[in-house]
Amino acid sequence: MEAIKAKLIDASATVIGEVELPFDIYGISPKVGILHEIVRWQMARWRVGTACTKTKGEVRGGGRKPWAQKHTGRARQGSIRAPQWVGGGVVHGPKPRSYEFKLNKKVRRLGLKMALSSRALANRIYVAENFPVKDIPKTKTLKTFLNNLGIDDALIVVPERNLVLEKSADNLPKIKILAVEGLNVYDILNHQNLILIKEALPKIEERLRR
Fold first, then answer.
1. pTM of the model
2. pLDDT tens, position by position, 160-194
3. Long-range contacts of 97-102 (CB under 8 A, 24+ apart)
4. Which fold has domain 4-47+101-208?
């Protein structure tokens, strides 16, 4: 069983060593079917589902029959709010609903391991021992750090929510800051690289080994 390793970098994005990652989390062969199902599940949960149209019975007006049933030479009509009329109701239109469907927790956890593994096996995981942005939001400092690393598309995972770092990444469209508790398959797959703050590693292991 070959060890899974990631590059260890310092605050200037210089590689200073390697970090060995647990094989049971970062060494699982990704399966497209499982990852696809989890991404579908995530996107379905995010859908608001507020689209709504009015049926014939909900559109205002149309209570009186527009003309007699027979002897007018015209087709029979029961209401000016029938679907074939302009301003009429909509047949089989959308109604507010939830698009969410059930997906087992075991499958979701496996998918997260596969997503992490897909980046680890492609040597696209970096572990940051220190980070240049500390107390004040500085987009330029973060951009320089990423340039030194030679990447412009990354998901940065921090132990807990970091508003200073989030503010620093606001104007960097391909950079996202995410706390361990919010780590998910969609965001991992949506970014080419993964930068893990060193303190986040034990929290990721704890979350995936519950």
1. 0.85
2. 999 999 999 999 999 999 999 999 999 999 999 99
3. 97/49, 98/49, 99/44, 99/45, 99/47, 99/49, 100/41, 100/44, 100/45, 101/41, 101/44
4. Ribosomal Protein L4; Chain: A; (3.40.1370)
